[in-house]
Specification:
Number of domains: 2
Strand content: 5-15%
GO molecular function: DNA binding
Keywords: DNA-binding, Phosphoprotein, Transcription, Transcription regulation
Number of helices: 10
Helix content: 40-55%
Shape: globular
Pfam families: GerE, Response_reg
CATH superfamily of the largest domain: Response regulator
Structural class: alpha/beta
CATH topology of the largest domain: Rossmann fold
Protein name: Two component transcriptional regulator, LuxR family
Number of strands: 5
Radius of gyration: 17 Å
Strand order of the largest sheet: 2-1-3-4-5
Largest sheet: 5 strands, parallel
Distance between the termini: 40 Å
CATH architecture of the largest domain: 3-Layer(aba) Sandwich
């Protein structure tokens, strides 16, 4: 059962999200909070698998709350939800440690899919988010070649998987590309995240481009 904490200053929004999520077998809402400070307390108390976090709230906003929740290891993953399609929110959320970013205008099924993905440790990597992450990551000159010392710990296959993850490919797509099973891909992804000290796939994309492992057009 995926345990979810809902954080939004509007009770009607929380009610709507609860209705959507609890319509899906395997998801239950274990708590609600109307601001970031209460969200921290609830996260520490409940240890949810996923927190659906609003960005703009009184007392403490979702970005500050996310940073503290991630720092204290109080939740499995944080999904940022906002009505604003702004890059500054996206990248501040990622910097704070969020594992996904979804507009409140998304379809109900997209919210369910996002929560399910984050609970599985996959992170939310929509093509649009991937494109914007890549654009920001390569706004400064790239290294001539991969030089990060962490790369020495990766096997050749793990490095190959990392490059495919950086394109936004799903586990099934990577499996088809490498002619292996999805379970094998999941193992490789888990291992490379652990070796690089990275939370999830979306931060692996950022890391890959910032360290020259992946390049635009290559």
């Amino acid at each position: 059962m995926i345990r979810v904490l809902l954080v939004d200053d509007q009770s009607m929004v929380r009610t709507g999200f609860r209705t959507i999520l609890e319509s899906e077998d395997g998801i239950t809402v274990v708590g609600e909070a109307e601001n970031g400070q209460i969200a921290i307390d609830k996260a520490l108390e409940l240890s949810p698998d996923v927190i659906c976090m609003d960005v703009q709230m009184p007392v403490m906003d979702g970005l500050e709350a996310t940073e503290e929740i991630v720092r204290r290891g109080a939740a499995g993953a944080v999904l940022m939800l906002t009505t604003f399609n702004r890059d500054d929110f996206l990248f501040r959320a990622l910097a704070a440690g969020a594992s996904g970013f979804l507009l409140k205008t998304a379809e109900a099924e997209q919210l369910i899919d996002a929560v399910t993905a984050l609970a599985a440790g996959d992170g939310l990597l929509s093509p649009e988010v991937t494109r914007r992450v890549i654009e920001r990551s390569v706004s400064t000159p790239e290294p001539a070649a991969p030089t990060a010392p962490e790369l020495e710990h990766l096997t050749d296959r793990e490095l190959e998987v990392l490059r495919l993850v950086a394109t936004g490919a799903s586990n099934s797509e990577i499996a088809a590309n490498l002619f292996v099973g999805e379970a094998t891909v999941k193992t490789h992804v888990s291992n490379l995240l652990s070796k690089l000290g990275i939370r999830d796939r979306i931060h692996a994309v950022i890391w890959a481009y910032e360290n020259g492992v992946a390049k635009v057009g290559g």
